[in-house]
Amino acid sequence: MNFESYFRGFKVLVTGASGGIGTALVKELLNQGARVGIHYHRRRPNVDELVTNTKADPEKDLFLFKADLKNLNETEKLFNSFIEWAGSIDGLVNNAGDVHVRKHFSEIDEMDIEADLALNLKAPFQLSRLAIKDMEKNSTKGSIVNISSIAAKFGGSPYTLFYGLSKSALETMTFSLGRYCAPLGIRINALRLGVLDTPFHVRHVKDLTERVQMIPAKRMGNPEEAAWWIMCLLNSKSAYMNGQVVSLTGGE
C-alpha cells in the first residue's frame, strides 16, 4: 500500500499497539510518514521491538504511552498526553480490546461485565469524544476507526457474551457519532474483523482448526490485511464514507 502523500505528518493515536493488528498498523503508518502515538498496557517488550525495527525517527515520529484503558481517568490522561506530544490529533484507531475472562454467562459477576464494557466500549467512547472535540476546535477533517468483531454479528459464545455485546454497542456508537460528525468533515467508521492469525485468537478460541472450517474462506485473516483496511478508512480517499461498518471476515 502507498498512502505516503496523505499520511506524511499525520498525527494518529493507536490503542492496543502491542498486539498483532496494532503492531502491523503502526509499522505501516510509520513507513508512510505518520507521527504515531503507540499505546500499550502490559506488553512493553512488544512495542520496544517495534520501535527497534522501524526506520522512523524515535525522537520525532513516535511516542510510547502506557495506560490501563479499563480506567477512564487513565484513558483521559492518555489522550491529554498524546495532545501534549503531538499538538493535535488527525486520526484515532480504537484497536485495544479483549475478553476480560472466559466464563459461562451463568457464572460471570458484575466486575467481569464492567471490565469488558470498560475496555471495549467506554474507553473508545471517551477517546472518540475527546478526539472529536479537538478536531472540531482545530477544524481538522480527521478520522476515527473503531475495531469491532464478528462477535457483534453472531453474539459471541456463552463464554464471551459481554465481549460481543460491547462490540455491538461500539458499532451503534459508530453509526451515531458518524451522523453527528459528518457535517464537520470528521469521519467515524468501524472495521468488523473475523478470525485473524493473532495472539488474541490463540488465547480465546478453544479449537482454531474447527473454527477456521466455519469460515467460508477456509482460512484466518492476517494482521496486514486488517492494517490495509484501517489505512483505507483513515485516509482522505474515503472522505465520503462515514458512520459505516466494513466487514473483513472471510465471508462470514
Can you walk through the features of this model?
There is one protein chain. The protein has 252 residues and is α/β, with parallel strands linked by helices. The protein has one domain: Rossmann fold (3-Layer(aba) Sandwich), CATH 3.40.50.720. It has 10 helices and 7 strands. The protein has a 7-stranded parallel sheet with strand order 3-2-1-4-5-6-7, sandwiched between helices. Helix 5 (110-137) packs parallel to helix 7 (161-181). The radius of gyration is 17 Å and the shape is globular. The model has no long low-confidence stretch (mean pLDDT 91).
Outline the secondary-structure elements.
Blueprint: H1 4-7, E1 11-14, H2 20-31, E2 35-40, H3 44-52, E3 62-66, H4 72-86, E4 91-94, H5 110-137, E5 143-149, H6 151-154, H7 161-181, E6 187-193, H8 199-204, H9 208-213, H10 223-234, E7 245-248
Parallel strand pairs: 1-2, 1-4, 2-3, 4-5, 5-6, 6-7
List key phrases describing it:
252 residues; Rossmann fold; 7-stranded parallel beta sheet; globular; alpha/beta; 10 helices
Q: Record the strand order, biggest sheet.
A: 3-2-1-4-5-6-7
Biggest pleated-sheet summary: 7 strands, parallel
Assign the CATH topology.
Answer: Rossmann fold
Radius of gyration: 17 Å
Give the uncertain stretches in residue-range form: none
- Beta-strand content: 5-15%
CATH class: Alpha Beta
Q: Structural class of the helix and strand makeup?
A: alpha/beta
User: Count the strands?
Assistant: 7
Q: Note the gap between the termini.
A: 25 Å
Number of domains: 1
Q: Which range best describes the helical content: under 10%, 10-25%, 25-40%, 40-55%, 55-70% or over 70%?
A: 40-55%
Mean pLDDT: 91
CATH A-level architecture: 3-Layer(aba) Sandwich
Principal-axes shape call:
globular
Helical segment tally?
A: 10
Spell out the helices and strands N to C.
HEHEHEHEHEHHEHHHE
- CATH superfamily name? NAD(P)-binding Rossmann-like Domain
